[in-house]
Amino acid sequence: MTGTERIRVMRVIARMNVGGPALQTSILMRGLDPERFEQRLYTGVVEPGEADYLDLRARDIIPHRVATLGRSVRPAGDARAVASLVAEMRRFRPHIVHTHTAKAGLLGRTAAVLARVPVRVHTYHGHLLYGYFSPAKTRLVVGTERMSAMVSDRLVAVGTRVRDELIAAGIGRPGQYAVVPPGTTLGTLPDRAAARLALGVPGEDPVVAFVGRLTRVKRPDRLMEVARELRRLVPGVRFVICGGGDAAGQVAEAAREFGNAMRTVGWRSDVETVYAAADLALLTSDNEGMPVSLIEAGLAGVPVVATRVGSVAEVVHDGVTGLLAPCDAGELARQAARLLLDDPARREMGRRARAFATQRFGPGRLVSDITGMYGSIAEERGWWPVQRKEEVR
Q1: d(CA 345, CA 286)
Q2: In terms of C-beta density within 10 A (0-12 exposed, 13-18 middle, 19 or more buried), how is residue 390 classed?
Q3: Are the C-beta atoms of 384 and 375 separated by less than 8 Å?
Q4: Which one of 7, 203, 224, 340 is at 20 to 30 Å from 173 when CA atoms are compared?
Q5: Beta strands at 154-157 and 64-65: parallel, antiparallel or unpaired
Q6: pLDDT tens, 45-88?
Q7: What is the homologous superfamily of the domain 7-184+362-392 according to CATH?
Q8: Which residues, listed in sequence order, are joined to residue 281 by a DSSP beta bridge?
């Protein structure tokens, strides 16, 4: 389908810290056809202790910085961010403003209304309905999201469970939603022995990896409880923790009790090295969208033990590509021990995980899905001619 003009897309995200939203944003910035779309990325700055995805993995993407668009809520700063975004929208004149992450979703859509941008799209990479705030603050968040959904043309959820929970909370109408799972790739896996050497993990002891932000909702405290119990069930097990965040200091302190059996390696641009060294990946969160770390584990052929939250079950098929458990440290440890002590079952789950992740979560599919959504909007608005069915064949 050939359009009569390029569609201008203004992509807004609060900060490009290492994680799923930054990865998905980067794939779209690189992947959309530049002959059909003109894109600009607007973002704030990462907070102290966070790693910047643009520095680690996406130096080719040049952002437009909005200093007050970061994570923290500051009324005066947020008002300045809205004013800056409105000014940028009037200069760029986007057809579509597409926002990512909660704060950017609120400020970006508010600015788009003020600047009279024709189409407003927001992606829910997860949600803040539980696990983040007090009940009173959660009610405020829900109310804000409901109002923002009312001025949105499309709402994108990374999984069906995420979408259903948002709709159940009264956020948006079913017809507004599209479910677009994440897409990603993984670098070439190094040799297992070389990976372990690079991480300082000696020998052939079983290795459990945790990859993700070290923040409250990810429950690093539960991670440590699981590690303690798992050491009792599987003597000799080792742990590699890859990530950073506001709880990184607490995790490093707690890791001391494990001696050389637990390595904290911070954020790494070669995350494939962590998966290559691992026998099992672990997720202990109270709340998730669709975790990219579990997709990466699948691409590496590493089975997962995870809490059954958010859209995790859409990545990890329980009993097929990994094992799911309630948010209980003891049960997570028992499931992890079950796999670590059964080499044939673990290897078979890893093979199935790789096949499923490769087929379902490639970056090409993500780009295709979003291209299709933008294209349908362009046809509805008359920016592009409607594609006849015979042209699709």
Answers
A1: 27
A2: exposed
A3: yes
A4: 7
A5: unpaired
A6: 998 878 899 998 899 999 999 989 987 778 899 999 999 999 99
A7: Glycogen Phosphorylase B; (3.40.50.2000)
A8: 209, 304
Q: What is the pLDDT of residue 127?
A: 85
CA distance 113 to 276: 47
DSSP state of 300: T
What's the DSSP call for residue 318?
A: B
The answer to whether residue 209 scores a pLDDT higher than 60 is yes
List the beta bridge partners of residue 69: none
Band of pLDDT at residue 202, cut at 50, 70 and 90? confident
What token pair was written down for 206? 């079983």
Cα separation values, 137 from 70, 132, 141, Å? 19, 9, 6
Cβ burial of 97 (10 Å; 0-12, 13-18, 19+) is buried
Q: According to CATH, where is 3.40.50.2000 located in the chain? A: 7-184+362-392, 192-360
Residue 1 has pLDDT above 70, yes or no: no
**Residue whose C-alpha is closest to residue 27's, from 350, 365, 263, 287:** 365
